[in-house]
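Module 6 notes. Inverse folding takes a fixed backbone as the condition and produces residue identities as the prediction. Think of it as a translation problem where the source language is geometry and the target language is the twenty amino acids. Below is one complete input and output pair. Work through it position by position during the lab.
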């Protein structure tokens, strides 16, 4: 019989633990007087359950009948569980009045926010021969710099690091992806600022697919720091298209008056 009581109490504890987690996840705080009132109700009901449990244990030890006491205990435990479900306020957090936020820094006299320059209409409406989707990834360890984890997107690489370009090219004339099986066969290369060219190959991404173009390069130990303004040049059937990272430069106005401008997200070589 004691084991039965213990199992019931444990089951109620599990249910209440779940209720606590759910309410806490959404907790919005309650008034102190509501908190105290519900706490008193639960405390009184818990005392009734504890008293009946003690009476039941005493009756079992004395060899007396326990059916009536067990029924009363079951009823009180059900009332306690219902009270906790109906009044979950006891499990929510009583939050103090939040501290007001400090006033915003006033704008200096004469400060004028920069006006965004709209793109040239002719450039926006221009139909290009190819469109691109490009990623920069950390490569496997083939150089002096260990990169863990490998094969994840990144825009900043140290000297000696292994950079992997992974990209897709779409022919706007046909609306299809450019592949190595196209006829005429395309020529695709990554051109670095120093004039070095890295041929691209068409292969399964990570060896399992889908198929994409890729190229790789180890950053020399003495390579200049700063933006790596590379290009991806595609030539196919007498048409040439270029992905130029320099056109992606996006320098936003200062976040705060007089502060530094927010730099762009182009590929960078960092210390």
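Target side of the pair, the amino acids:
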């Amino acid at each position: 019989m004691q084991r039965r009581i213990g199992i019931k109490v444990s089951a109620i504890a599990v249910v209440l633990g779940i209720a606590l987690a759910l309410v806490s996840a959404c907790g919005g705080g309650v008034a102190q007087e509501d908190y105290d009132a519900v706490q008193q109700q639960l405390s009184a009901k818990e005392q009734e359950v504890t008293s009946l449990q003690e009476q039941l244990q005493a009756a079992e030890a004395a060899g007396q009948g326990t059916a009536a006491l067990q029924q009363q205990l079951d009823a009180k435990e059900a009332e306690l569980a219902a009270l906790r479900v109906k009044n979950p306020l006891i499990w929510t957090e009583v939050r103090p009045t939040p501290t007001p936020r400090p006033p915003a820094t006033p704008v200096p006299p004469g400060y004028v926010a920069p006006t965004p320059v709209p793109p040239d209409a002719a450039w926006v409406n221009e139909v290009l021969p190819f469109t691109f989707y490009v990623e920069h990834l950390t490569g496997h360890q083939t150089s002096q710099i260990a990169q863990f984890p490998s094969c994840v997107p990144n825009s900043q690489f140290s000297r000696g690091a292994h950079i992997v370009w992974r990209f897709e090219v779409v022919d706007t004339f046909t609306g299809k992806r450019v592949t190595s099986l196209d006829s005429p066969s395309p020529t695709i290369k990554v051109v670095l600022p120093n004039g070095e060219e890295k041929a691209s190959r068409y292969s399964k991404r990570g060896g399992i697919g889908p198929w994409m173009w890729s190229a790789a390069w180890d950053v020399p130990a003495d390579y200049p720091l700063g933006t790596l303004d590379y290009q991806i040049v595609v030539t196919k059937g007498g048409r040439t298209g270029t992905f130029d990272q320099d056109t992606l430069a996006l320098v936003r106005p200062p976040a705060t008056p007089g502060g530094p401008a927010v730099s762009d997200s182009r590929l960078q070589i960092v210390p």
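Reference fact for the lab report: Confidence is low (pLDDT under 50) at residues 1-29, 89-94.
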